[in-house]
Amino acid sequence: MSDSPPDGNFQHSAENEKLDLSTKLAFGAGDLGTAITAMIGISYLSPFLTDVAGLNPQLAGQTQLVGKVWDAVNDPMVGVLSDRTQSSQGRRYPWMIWGAIPFGVFFFLQWIVPHFSNNENVNQWGLFWYYTAISILFNAFYTVVNLPYTALTAELTQDYDERTSLNSFRFAFSIGGSILALIIGLFISLVVPNNRSLQFLLIGAICAIISVLPIYWCVWGTKKRAQAVANLHPETEQTVSIPLWQQLKIAFSNRPFLFVVGIYLCSWLAVQLTAGIIPYFVISWMRLPQWHISSVLLAVQGTAMSMLFVWSAISKRVGKQAVYYMGMTLWIIAQAGLFFVKPDQVVLMYCLAVLAGFGVSTAYLIPWSMLPDVIELDELKTGQRREGIFYSFMVFLQKICLGLAVNLVLQRLGAAGYVKPTPEIPVPTQPDSVLEVIRVSIGPLPAAALICGLVLAYFYPITREMHAEILLKLQERRERRGIGNRGDGVSGV
């Protein structure tokens, strides 16, 4: 006898808009592998390229920029194609099934150091083109598995609070994956302390293997629920017939969507700028052993994970915006404090890392909980479900801006005279100009982005009551004439 619940149970669950624990766990697992690779990439790729592969900071910044720009460009492509996919597996699952293994393979290839020539200039450009090509391929398959996965959120439930709960599981796995990645990095740095090239190779191989399997767990554990919702709400599987440029026009005329994009962009600009500069901050400014890099990042991510379900519970009482205000305020204090930390204030550095974790957890939770509400508003106006286009263009803008930001920081490090480590001098003393770039990049720049996010959250228009109004009008439309193409307005949006 099968252990799976009968289809009637899935239908009943879909009608109640509540998800069982096994479905939530499986959905959350879908973000585990991409979180592991993202954390390893943002935390270690820049120092790997500059300090191990030997690329100068300017070329290291450019190769990451090219990868991020391509990553951003392929997001709307995959989003539109997944919206239009017709398969017995649904719209999203074929992409995840076939993209998982190449995703792992190209992640691993990022951590190999090829040697093209004894000539320094030739070798620099050979390394640049190798890492650029691998970055393009890895980011392409990252999008192939991750973007259809994120679009599942709105296809598993339409309940306002249940979506916040669903995202809590997603980001518990996401932060858990980040923590696991950092633990692996910390363990390897302690076991292989004097060979950084071997350290990164082992990290790449181990993380590539453990990043692929959870994607298949997600597919296996959520597919029946998605099919039950699709049967109950056929609009969730309706292919999109609006031309691409008209879709863009509609998406960017959706005022709440622009606010969500801005909030997400500001939050994640702060996250990734900080994570990317921490290796340089710990080694060059604080003058600490390498294992402290993973420890500091663990302090941030561990706190973020422990607070995730706390913030979710508070959100049910006071709303998403209020939770965002609370988290961002604490986070701004932490980022500003890091600018003033002195090299001998190690305990204070860790305390500020923990404080930052309170805010990072809201950056995971709140913007992604807002986006499905925006999708319902779009359905009300257009009569079509277009999760892929909204998710893809949200991430599209974020990746373009973050690619530019990381490139700018590395360009400034190079222009300021960054001194690369050598076997003879593994931790060189950096000039004051480089140290100033590091401190500004970990303090004022992220804090300014977070303040902008607070302002945007204040003006975000979709409240719990307004979302209930949107769902009521959608339900009335379906009951009256099925799935229509004419939208009704919602006051105040």
Number of strands: 0
CATH fourth-tier homologous superfamily of the largest domain: MFS general substrate transporter like domains
Strand content: under 5%
**CATH-defined topology of the largest domain:** Growth Hormone, Chain: A
**What structural class is derived from the secondary structure elements?**
mainly alpha
The count of helical stretches stands at 18
Mean pLDDT level: 82
Give the CA-CA distance, first to last residue.
51 Å
Number of domains: 2
Rg from C-alpha positions? 23 Å
Task: Based on Cα principal axes, name the global outline.
Answer: globular
Let me know the largest β-sheet: none
CATH architecture of the largest domain: Up-down Bundle
Q: Which CATH class of the largest domain is shown?
A: Mainly Alpha
- The parts where pLDDT drops under 50 for at least 5 residues are 1-6, 10-15, 235-240, 483-493
Oligomer: single chain
Please estimate the helix content: over 70%
